What we know:
The chain is of the alpha+beta class. The protein has five domains: 2-32; 104-174, no CATH class; 193-222 and 553-646; 230-242 and 458-547; 244-455, Roll (Chitinase A, domain 3), CATH 3.10.50. The strands form five sheets. Strands 6, 7, 8, 9 and 10 form a five-stranded antiparallel beta sheet that branches. Strands 15-3-17-16 form a four-stranded antiparallel beta sheet. Strands 11-5-13-12 form a four-stranded antiparallel beta sheet, with helices on both faces. The two termini are 55 Å apart. The model is unreliable at 1-38 (pLDDT under 50).
Amino acid sequence: MAVLNKIRQRSFFLIIIIALALFSFVLADLFKSGGFTGAKNQNTIATINGEDVDRETFARKVENFQRNRRNVTSTQAVNEVWDLTLQESLLEEQIEKTGIKVGDEQFNNMLKQVYAGNPNFTNEAGLFDVAVLEEYVANLKVTSPQAYEQWKLMEKQIELQAKNQIYYNMIRAGVGATLVEGEQAYLMQNESVDLKFVLVPYTSVDNVEVSKEEIKEYVNKHKSRFEQEANTAIKYVYFEEKPSLEDDNAAKEEITEIIAQFNEAENNESFVAQNSDMPYDGTFKFKSALPSTNADQIFNLNEGENFGPYKENDFWKYTKVTGVKQIADSVKLRRILVSYQGSAIDQGNYTKTKEQAKALADSLLIAVNADTAKFDELAPEFSDDVSSKDKGGDLGWNRYTNARLTPEVKDFAYNNEKGDVELIENQIGFHIVMIEEANNFQKAVQLATIAKEIVASETTSSNLYTETTSFEMKSKDADFDAIAKEGNYDVKTVNNIKAMQENINSALGNQRSIVQWTFNEDTKVGATKRFDLNSGYVVVKLVSRKGKGVQSAEDASPVVTPILRAEKQAEIIKKKIAGKSMADVASSENVSIQSASAVSLSNPTLPGATSEPEVVGAAFSLEPGKVTDPIAGKKGVYLVELVKKNEVTPLNSYRTFAERESKSRSANALNRVNEALKSSAEIEDNRADFY
């Protein structure tokens, strides 16, 4: 009681302490989420040139995209919608600046393009009519205000598309080629030179060092080339869950235990359904359709004989031959199809009931049984198969291995004789089918196979989990590579992972959770974590996290070092060969004088070298017999002598070349404009905070 009295006496101070603790907790959370602007951050996917992209609006677009485009992941949908949103926003800003307006005539033309095939907006002549559309919209406004609002949004979208079209057309017009440029294009493609040259390769100069400071200086001079997105790098060890030798033996033992029962079974299909990990397949097969590993042994068995147990891929199997017969490799068929209301192919255009269709099919069967030539007469009139009715019901040749036939028709076609006619019913209607011809009969076998999949047992899975967890714990506080080496594990590295990336590499595939972990502020560089995969586990170490900006000297080194090294090597070579003739250079540098014929500016490739536009361009400026000064190319330093310039006959008009050049420029212009707008925009991309 004394303790309780003391608590009561000091309750006021306890309340104050608790309140302060709660307040500090709230403040910490507030600052962590971006201070008092956190509410905005939580509702803004991105900011493009000062304009916010609302989270809810963006999320609806992503949902619609996934609904319309199946087989895309959430991240793929987010990235696709982001690209479209960014492009629309940047274009809208440019259109507003240029003051582009859409006239009534152009807007109506856009409406016509969108709704030309819609019967709601066509007149009595079957043509799109703006007046009919306007009447429809006016009626919509009165009868369905919600649908009318959706229509207004659609109109706004169509107007935006029209403005985009005008903007792009202006760009295309601006990049067109003049006749003078057409002439230049003609000369570049057709004018050529014959020349001689010596090439002193850069590899002839050894021990050229490039310092970190030189790389840094080069990067600072070319910052735009070395801009990078925020990125991370990881190391990982993959622990694949796969069956052990014990699991393999267990699957084989399961098969072995039921072989005797299988051999005695009278109903193979039922036995396979109850005891096998693979479904029953009772179709007759040619040898080419059997798995190649055991095809010879199985195909040469007689009916009633068996083979196995044998291992095939991830299964232990046992097979017995239940049938052997000769089957045509291909058959030629005729068919009359009679369908009905409610069949699998009915789209509201069939008028016959199922009973009426059956009665008609029966009468047609009697007619063609009496005279098979009647197919030519009856199919055009009665068949519902639009692809064959006008050909007398001719289905052409169908190979057994890839016949384009329904199962019921195929079963009849390959199990009966030439000239046979039968009425077959299935979900699409009634088929009157005739086997017109059958070719190349050969042996086929029917098999019944029981299979047991070789899978990792609970013991195997548990052992792998223990092994993975042990590696994870050891690597948290020790050298990742050293621990991996002790366990004989293979360490893989993945660099330059972007914030909205999903696919890690070909081995791990889509692992969005790993990417998010590497960018999470709470994940420290050097941290290690285990991730569960469908096929096992992966233990990942975060090696680095780099912010958006210019690359460091270390990161840029693989690109910059060869450039700077080549520049230094070029200067050394130029000094060595300065003032020397081509013959002297060839002799002193142990290289040969080479020749090249008909080299053009449009294809400036020299023998034994890559494309060398600067070298070839210098040759075009020479007079015959003259030699260039040493020129630094891509592979080394060149001396070039012009032997002859091959002039071309002038054309009366260069319009064709100008039009071709305009078309080429136009094709690339839109992409270049979009990239230019993107690179000059101020973009704050927060997608990774939400997805």
